[in-house]
Design brief:
The chain has about 240 residues and is mainly alpha-helical. It is built from 9 helices and no strands.
Length: about 240
């Protein structure tokens, strides 16, 4: 099931700006526009069998779809290993939603409210039965995640006269805070920032991407995995 869900996640990420095509659109090769048969749509295996090329025009397909399918499968496997019973399903739901957001941000530089806001509500919903201090910690995490990034975005815009962090990033961190509580926020930001910086430096040194002050970085691509990692193993111990 997980690889098929990964295929849907990839399709959603590609077609998110055209909701009608998500529901009614048929899968086709982006190069020759040939409609794909069922044999072309088996997650991972179809890509491997065709050696990463369209069976009809032999154009390269790329690793976006099989990568998403493999990531969705990995999320399921890790969730089952780390969590027992219903908690594994909850972890899968969180991981798959974050994967969707990360891929959408990678492709379009947006983080839709239709995913970030329900994700925040779901995070608070998972801790709701525990009530008391636990619910307060997660609610504070959500509020702090939103306010911290909004403050950074406001200060950057005042100083540089242009947008630095998108509001979508703030909403995603708010959703993350709802899942990992305020105690996990620092770890999420640290991990996401460190990985984003490392990837950016590697891209710059390889010459594939020219990094400038105005270069847009899809920070949701790094926030998503960081949130899920902290959800799995807890905050980094800096003591």
């Amino acid at each position: 099931m997980a690889p098929f869900l990964g295929s849907f996640v990839a399709t959603l990420a590609v077609r998110v700006l055209d909701v009608r095509s998500i529901i009614l659109g048929r899968s086709h090769c982006p190069h020759c526009l040939h409609r794909l048969a069922l044999a072309d749509l088996v997650p991972i295996l179809s890509w491997l069998w065709s050696l990463g090329r369209c069976r009809y025009c032999r154009s390269p397909i790329g690793i976006f779809y099989p990568g998403a399918e493999a990531a969705a499968m990995a999320i399921a496997v890790v969730s089952v290993v780390v969590f027992p019973g219903i908690d594994a399903l909850i972890s899968c739901g969180l991981g798959w939603t974050l994967l969707t957001l990360a891929l959408i941000d990678l492709r379009h530089h947006i983080l839709p409210d239709a995913l970030t806001l329900p994700l925040a509500a779901a995070g608070l919903g998972t801790v709701w039965p525990r009530g008391g201090a636990a619910l307060l910690d997660h609610a504070l995490g959500s509020a702090a995640g939103l306010l911290i990034f909004l403050a950074i975005s406001y200060i950057y815009q005042r100083l540089r006269d242009r947008e630095g962090l998108g509001i979508g990033d703030a909403k995603l961190l708010a959703a993350g805070g709802a899942w990992v509580a305020w105690q996990g926020l620092a770890s999420v930001v640290l991990i996401a920032s460190a990985v984003a910086l490392a990837v950016t430096i590697i891209q710059a040194t390889r010459g594939g991407v020219r990094i400038q002050a105005t270069t847009r970085i899809p920070f949701g691509l790094y926030l998503g995995p960081a949130i899920w990692l902290v959800w799995l193993v807890g905050p980094i111990n800096l003591g």
